[in-house]
């Protein structure tokens, strides 16, 4: 098989009238801020997407029952026995504030040296336009679809998919029966392989806070009085050992161990390792799991406890000798199958009480359950085979990722085979400055979706 070079893919993109049209749609989408965390632009972007899909014959529903509108856009096949593919996407993005460095305006789609840049170009607006391009190219060539295609798009994915479960329950009968759900996004790894994944970790986030006195106290009393900072640090230290294993009693009793197939897929395809991370991030502390097999098993299949931020006392110039009256921390536990956010939060509360840290105030902030697949369903294997024919460096098949998303929520209600793949690259910088996708990868994704549609032809 002769694979297309990146330059050839870029040229095909430039000469493709449909791709160019939806590139301009993407330009508009990038320019329209839609940030759930700041309650910016959600209704505006949902309405715009409704117009885009309605204009090409989709049956569109925009439900504004909750703060982030939910969009369903259906392209129906004339075949009465047609199968159904669902694309799950989201139109919200994380902010792009002054704490990030961007070469250009993050809300202006720019192109430099074969790459598109802009907030949401990979996560996740670019996937919407790429997949819609594939549908429109097929219809333009053949007149109608051999398969029903449903785009469902939410606007709160970056905020734990708030209210998604309610929307899915409401529209379950409209979305089903279906044969395959293609997840929001994915990327190529550093070897150029297309990663095809079937799950993600869950998460529970929480705040810890301690108030030790009505006011800060002079530190001359440090020998005889406890401070909020020390009390909080001791509480946090009780939750994890020096190797990263969580010490919350009973937590590991609920963990669903990976199957042999899941372990084999990770052993064969996963490329993450402690040495590469050391080089990538300039690590100055040793890895918790330096040995490869232990690293991969922990990374993909075990829970983790992390401190997102700590705050206490004086942080200004010079010295202020005090015992801080208040201390707080933002924390998270990444979850694996068998661990629900509520279960873990309850176990954590009991842990604090059992170890004498009853003065720590524990506040739940958000939670999502985890999901993973062994990637053996025939509909999933079909996509894998197609991708092997389009990506010169091949594919990497993983039953889960270490990131978090609402896969479990969707699976729990729709119970469909699901997989994720997309237009990103190993340095797409999602959530960071200069978020980007390669034009060649964008166009190859369009071709892959087209080829998938063709497999449903009679």
From TrEMBL:
Residues 199-352 form the Peptidase M20 dimerisation domain. Gene3D superfamilies: 3.30.70.360, Zn peptidases. Keywords: Hydrolase, Metal-binding, Protease. One of its GO terms (cellular component) is cytosol. The keyword Protease applies. It comes from the Bacteria. GO terms for biological process: lysine biosynthetic process via diaminopimelate; proteolysis. GO terms for molecular function: metal ion binding; peptidase activity; succinyl-diaminopimelate desuccinylase activity. Pfam families: M20_dimer, Peptidase_M20. This is Peptidase M20. It comes from Streptococcus pantholopis.
């Amino acid at each position: 098989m002769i694979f297309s070079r990146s330059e050839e893919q870029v040229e095909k993109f430039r000469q493709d009238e449909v791709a160019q049209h939806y590139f301009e749609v993407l330009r508009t989408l990038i320019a329209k801020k839609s940030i759930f965390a700041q309650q910016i632009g959600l209704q505006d972007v949902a309405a715009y997407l409704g117009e885009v899909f309605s204009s090409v014959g989709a049956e569109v529903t925009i439900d504004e029952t909750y703060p982030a509108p939910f969009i369903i856009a259906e392209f129906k096949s004339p075949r009465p026995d047609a199968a159904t593919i669902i694309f799950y996407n989201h139109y919200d993005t994380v902010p792009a504030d002054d704490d990030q460095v961007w070469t250009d305006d993050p809300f202006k789609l720019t192109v430099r040296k074969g790459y598109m840049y802009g907030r949401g170009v990979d996560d996740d607006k670019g996937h919407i336009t790429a997949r819609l391009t594939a549908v429109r190219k097929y219809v333009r060539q053949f007149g109608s679809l051999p398969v029903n295609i449903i785009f469902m798009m939410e606007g709160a994915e970056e905020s734990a998919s708030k209210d998604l479960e309610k929307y899915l329950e409401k529209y379950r009968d409209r979305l089903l029966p279906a044969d395959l759900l293609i997840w929001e996004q994915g990327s190529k790894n550093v070897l150029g392989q297309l990663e095809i994944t079937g799950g993600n970790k869950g998460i529970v986030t929480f705040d810890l806070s301690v108030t030790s006195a009505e006011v800060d106290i002079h530190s001359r009393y440090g020998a005889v009085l406890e401070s909020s900072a020390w009390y909080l640090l001791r509480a946090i230290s009780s939750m994890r050992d020096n190797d990263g294993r969580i010490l919350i009693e009973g937590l590991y009793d609920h963990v669903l161990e990976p199957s042999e197939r899941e372990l084999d897929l990770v052993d064969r395809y996963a490329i993450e390792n402690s040495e590469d991370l050391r080089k990538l991030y300039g690590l100055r502390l040793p890895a918790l799991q330096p040995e490869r097999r232990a690293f991969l098993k922990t990374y993909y299949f075990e829970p983790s406890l992390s401190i997102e931020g700590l705050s206490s006392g004086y942080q200004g110039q010079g010295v202020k000798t005090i015992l801080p009256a208040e201390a707080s921390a933002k924390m998270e536990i990444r979850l694996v199958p068998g661990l629900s956010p509520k279960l873990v939060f309850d176990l954590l509360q009991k842990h604090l009480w059992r170890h004498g840290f009853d003065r720590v105030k524990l506040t739940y902030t958000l939670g999502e359950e985890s999901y993973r697949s062994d990637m053996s369903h025939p509909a999933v294997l079909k996509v894998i085979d197609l991708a092997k024919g389009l990506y010169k460096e091949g594919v990497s098949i993983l039953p889960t990722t270490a990131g978090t998303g609402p896969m479990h929520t969707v699976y729990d209600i729709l119970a469909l085979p699901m997989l994720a793949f997309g237009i990103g690259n190993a340095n797409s910088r999602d959530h960071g400055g200069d978020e980007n996708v390669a034009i060649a990868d964008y166009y190859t994704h369009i071709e892959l979706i087209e080829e998938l549609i063709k497999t449903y032809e009679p």
